[in-house]
């Protein structure tokens, strides 16, 4: 009897990552160079620098006890801002807990993002026209909800999409598969980002799966996927932009894997990357710094300078100070407010709780 | 007005709401062309189209994620989980997401979702179809848990649930689907959420129950009446949050209470009712609170349902024990 060759039956499409800029900031792939004006290119860089400054200041504010939960984003500026830059204001963003920069650039006031970090309900009170939900803590949950939001947009005939992010570890969740599979089945306008930063806390990506690439997982649901150099903002932007166009034209969802790295710990809640990463590895990734790469590109084009960096940094510092002032003048959290927020029509049992609380406070 | 089974009353409620509000979306496994495994959605896709009533892939978390996402884009989703035993698959989307979305967004978004799911024993289903898991969902702040005990309430409560801008878990006891008929108005009407109802007035003891056990309690009460015991029978209808006032009023009147549920003793909502009476109504009591519930084992093999499930006889015995305490 003929033996089946199971090794040969393994899928290993091994996509080559899409790159536009090399590490020195030179365009190495003219064919994929985004059609962006000088102003737009500068704005994209400013968003990346903004995100880096926020990351550094938020880390300090966390250490001082002035902010709470924070998942560092340094190293992921190209992946986060490059993708978000390609989206429309009315596209619906469902981010994970590390995807706060996209949320702010999508329209959430910075002060509210900081309130979210501190754990204040006002941080999650979103204006009616903000097409987004607060950062999702349950890894994978945003993926199944994205399928629902995308189907809703499709049913309304909107020319918008829903976009979402998870990490490499998140690709192991059931909801990751279900979300993409539902969106594929309903041909819903959804864009799924996998930001592969090589680690889920301490667990390296290769422990998550035997798949050659996370992008291979799109094969299981029958949707297209692409791998992008996640340290290259122009590559991420162009892939996202083209994916968006394809999706809103009614062709169904796309998955994009961005190869990136976080320079900091998983979160500031006690994780120490020295336990599981080498200095050599970190140094190698610092050579690929997405912010530096984009800055070199703009500087060579005569669009940016060290002075502009300095002036912009001061501007963002002021933005952060103003936001913190707003955060620190918020009223204390109130259980009465919580009880009132819980239901639109407050059930009598909850009303009794509220009455008891109010009479206690009245004493 | 026509005499309808509960399943027909449920279909009628969805029919009314699909016609009334174009935002209503019904979806789940086999609810479309097939009309549902119990025919609950029979004919609805043909009448309202595949855009309003549609099948989904076989994945409960995906179904509830779909519901949450549709709610975020302004729809009024009425998803179905084929059997309640399968909600474990969707528990994050129910408990971790749907229940708390309004709260976590400080009341700035609405989640008008009605999750329908069948449960309940006595019809010899295979494993994990009949489990009474209402206690799990009743423990989740932000939800309403509703279960009707007959056709009239089923239609009115389902219409109320669908119209509510807060999420409702609506539980349909399988043994009630076709075991009885009641007069059900042809037009739309509502039965209020958050309200228990005295189904039978009495003075000696209050039997508090819901769903199929409510019917068993009414039968027990009829027998007890012949023996001179006048039981008041209270249908909780909304299991969470509880209608505290109606429960306490009845207990105050009778001074004795038997709480009857099909779920195991450690599950269900009897313990919550008991806690309420212990806290707020202990001085009304002439006898200890009695709970009739199933044994604390996993749901039985189907041939073991008869000895395992509470029934009219166990209810009667509990009432007599309480009255004669």
TrEMBL record, chain A:
Residues 45-333 form the Dehydrogenase E1 component domain. Keywords: Oxidoreductase, Pyruvate, Thiamine pyrophosphate. It catalyses: N(6)-[(R)-lipoyl]-L-lysyl-[protein] + pyruvate + H(+) = N(6)-[(R)-S(8)-acetyldihydrolipoyl]-L-lysyl-[protein] + CO2. One of its GO terms (molecular function) is pyruvate dehydrogenase (acetyl-transferring) activity. The keyword Signal does not apply. GO terms for biological process: branched-chain amino acid catabolic process. Its EC number is 1.2.4.1. InterPro entries: Alpha-ketoacid_DH_E1_comp (IPR050771), DH_E1 (IPR001017), PdhA/BkdA (IPR017596), THDP-binding (IPR029061). NCBIfam families: PDH_E1_alph_x (TIGR03181). Heterodimer of an alpha and a beta chain. The pyruvate dehydrogenase complex catalyzes the overall conversion of pyruvate to acetyl-CoA and CO(2). It contains multiple copies of three enzymatic components: pyruvate dehydrogenase (E1), dihydrolipoamide acetyltransferase (E2) and lipoamide dehydrogenase (E3). This is Pyruvate dehydrogenase E1 component subunit alpha. The gene is pdhA.
UniProtKB/TrEMBL annotation, chain B:
Its cofactor is thiamine diphosphate. One of its GO terms (molecular function) is oxidoreductase activity. It comes from the Bacteria. It holds the Pfam family Transketolase_C. Residues 4-179 form the Transketolase-like pyrimidine-binding domain. The keyword Oxidoreductase applies. SMART domains: Transket_pyr. Gene3D superfamilies: 3.40.50.920, 3.40.50.970. Coiled coil: none annotated. InterPro entries: THDP-binding, Transketo_C/PFOR_II, Transketolase-like_Pyr-bd, Transketolase_C. Keywords: Oxidoreductase, Thiamine pyrophosphate. CDD domains: TPP_PYR_E1-PDHc-beta_like (cd07036). The keyword rRNA-binding does not apply. This is Alpha-ketoacid dehydrogenase subunit beta. It comes from Candidatus Limosilactobacillus merdigallinarum.
């Amino acid at each position: 009897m003929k033996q089946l060759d199971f090794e040969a039956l393994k899928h290993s499409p091994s996509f080559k990552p899409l790159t536009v800029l090399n590490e020195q900031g030179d365009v190495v792939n003219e064919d994929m160079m985004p059609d962006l004006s000088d102003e737009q290119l500068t704005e994209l860089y400013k968003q990346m620098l903004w995100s880096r400054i926020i990351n550094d200041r938020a880390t300090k504010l966390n250490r001082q006890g002035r902010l709470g939960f924070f998942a560092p984003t340094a190293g992921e500026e190209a992946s986060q801002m490059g993708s978000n830059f390609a989206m429309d204001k009315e596209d619906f963003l469902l981010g994970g807990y590390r995807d706060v920069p996209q949320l702010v650039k999508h329209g959430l006031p910075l002060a509210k993002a900081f309130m979210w970090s501190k754990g204040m309900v006002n941080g999650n009170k979103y204006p009616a026209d903000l097409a987004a939900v607060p950062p999702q803590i349950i890894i994978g949950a945003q993926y199944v909800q994205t399928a629902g939001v995308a189907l809703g947009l499709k049913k309304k005939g909107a020319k918008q999409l829903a976009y979402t992010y998870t990490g490499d570890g998140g690709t192991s969740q059931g909801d990751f598969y279900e979300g993409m599979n539902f969106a594929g089945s309903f041909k819903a306008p959804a864009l799924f980002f996998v930001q592969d930063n090589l680690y889920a806390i301490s667990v390296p990506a290769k422990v998550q799966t035997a798949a050659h690439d996370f992008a291979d997982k799109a094969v299981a649901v029958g949707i297209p996927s692409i791998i992008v150099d996640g340290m290259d903002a122009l590559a991420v932007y162009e892939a996202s932009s083209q994916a968006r166009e394809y999706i809103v034209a009614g062709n169904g969802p796309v998955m994009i894997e961005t190869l990136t790295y976080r320079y900091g710990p998983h979160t500031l809640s006690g994780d120490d990357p020295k336990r599981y990463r080498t200095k050599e590895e970190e140094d190698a990734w610092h050579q690929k710094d997405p912010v530096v790469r984009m800055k070199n590109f703009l500087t060579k084009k005569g669009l940016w300078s060290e002075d502009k960096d300095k002036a912009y940094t001061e501007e963002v510092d002021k933005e952060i100070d103003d936001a913190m002032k707003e955060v620190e003048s918020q009223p204390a959290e109130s259980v009465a407010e919580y009880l009132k927020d819980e239901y639109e029509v407050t059930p009598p049992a909850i009303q009794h709780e509220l009455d008891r609380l109010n009479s206690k406070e009245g004493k | 007005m026509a005499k309808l089974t509960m399943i027909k009353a449920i279909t009628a409620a969805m029919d009314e709401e699909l016609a009334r509000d174009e935002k209503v979306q019904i979806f789940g496994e086999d609810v479309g062309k097939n009309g549902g495994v119990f025919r609950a959605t029979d004919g609805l896709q043909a009448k309202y189209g595949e855009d309003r009533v549609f099948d989904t892939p076989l994945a409960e978390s995906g179904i509830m994620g779909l519901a949450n996402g549709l709610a975020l884009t302004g729809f009024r989703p009425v998803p179905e989980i084929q059997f309640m035993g399968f909600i474990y698959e969707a528990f994050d989307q129910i408990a971790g997401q749907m229940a708390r979305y309004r709260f976590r967004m400080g009341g700035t978004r609405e989640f008008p979702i009605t999750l329908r799911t069948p449960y309940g024993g006595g019809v010899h289903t295979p494993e994990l179809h009949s489990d009474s898991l209402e206690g799990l969902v009743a423990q989740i702040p932000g939800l309403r848990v509703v279960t009707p005990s007959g056709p009239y309430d089923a239609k009115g409560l389902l219409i109320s649930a669908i119209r509510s801008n807060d999420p409702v878990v609506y539980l349909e006891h399988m043994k009630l689907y076709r075991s009885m008929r009641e007069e059900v108005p042809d037009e739309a009407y509502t039965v209020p959420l958050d309200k228990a109802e005295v189904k039978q007035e009495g003075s000696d003891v209050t039997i508090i129950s819901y769903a199929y056990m409510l019917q068993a309690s009414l039968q027990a009460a009829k027998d007890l009446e012949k023996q001179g015991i006048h039981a008041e029978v209270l249908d909780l209808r909304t299991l969470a949050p509880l209608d505290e006032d109606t429960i306490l009023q009845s207990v105050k009147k009778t001074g004795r209470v038997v709480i009857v549920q099909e779920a195991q003793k450690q599950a269900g909502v009897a313990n919550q009712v008991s806690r309420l009476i212990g806290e707020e109504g202990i001085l009304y009591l002439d006898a200890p609170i009695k709970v009739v519930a199933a044994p604390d084992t996993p749901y039985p093999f189907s041939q073991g349902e008869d000895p395992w499930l509470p029934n009219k006889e166990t209810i009667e015995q509990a009432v007599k024990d309480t009255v004669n305490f």
